[in-house]
Design goal:
The complex is a heterodimer. Chain A is mainly β. Chain A has strands spanning 4-5, 10-14, 19-21, 24-25, 32-38, 44-50, 56-58, 64-68, 73-78, 87-94, 105-106, 110-115. Classes of the chains: A mainly beta, B mainly beta.
């Protein structure tokens, strides 16, 4: 079964600093990879995804992530944090093939705090 | 992108009662999915809802507790039966969009059982 590990349940950065949220997955076959953001008292919003092709993907709000097959990683970065980035971030994976059309396995989430 | 509407958005329920959550999608989708997010936790898949057949439940979830309907390609319901405080969670509907090659979520239904 798939597993997703997000290193660090809480990450704190200063406004303007680099944001790095880590995600590793367990699949031996490259899956589809997603990052979602959940703002307080809201649902999930898709930040970005990797399915095939270019391994560096850009998403909304200045975020990007790089798929590294050799490291089974899909870390999320943003060069300069804004206060509005404070939220919980979830990494999720989906098997690329078979009948797992929309079954996602989620990491435990990382709460990002941005200090002035 | 797919637009997913869930009702109710929030509710406070008495223990022992049941509540049905509705999920409406603005386009036809083959499969719809129901997730649960317990307080402070990540999301866990409850079941996959296929049109015209019974839902497929994940380990730890049973039909008697979480009956699901999928009457057509744009709509599904999840019922949380005989609720206890442990059922206080966010319940989210999601769909796999073939055209967008991605997975979208509704805004969630926030249930508190007292």
């Amino acid at each position: 079964a798939q597993s997703v590990t997000q290193l660090g349940s809480h990450v704190s950065v200063s406004e303007g600093a680099l944001v790095l949220l880590r995600c590793n997955y367990s699949s031996s076959v490259p899956p589809y990879l997603f990052w979602y953001v959940q703002y307080p008292n809201q649902g999930l919003q898709l930040l970005l995804k990797y399915t095939t092709g270019a391994t560096l993907v850009k998403g909304i709000n200045g975020f990007e992530a790089e798929f590294k097959k050799s490291e089974t990683s899909f870390h999320l970065t943003k060069p300069s944090a804004h206060m509005s980035d404070a939220a919980e971030y979830f990494c999720a994976v989906k098997d690329a093939g078979g009948t797992s059309y929309g079954k996602l396995t989620f990491g435990q989430g990382t709460i990002l705090t941005v200090h002035p | 992108s797919a637009v997913i509407s869930q009702k109710p958005s929030r509710d406070i329920c008495q223990r022992g009662t049941s509540l049905t959550i509705q999920c409406q999608v603005d386009s036809q989708v083959t499969m719809m999915f129901w997730y649960r997010q317990q307080p402070g936790q990540s999301l866990t898949l409850i079941a996959t809802a296929n049109q015209g057949s019974e839902a497929t439940y994940e380990s730890g979830f049973v039909i008697d507790k979480f009956p699901i309907s999928r009457p057509n390609l744009t709509f599904s319901t999840l019922t949380v039966s005989n609720m206890s405080p442990e059922d206080s969670s966010i319940y989210l509907c999601s769909v796999w969009s073939l055209s967008g090659n991605t997975i979208y979520f509704g805004e969630g239904s926030w249930l508190t059982v007292v």
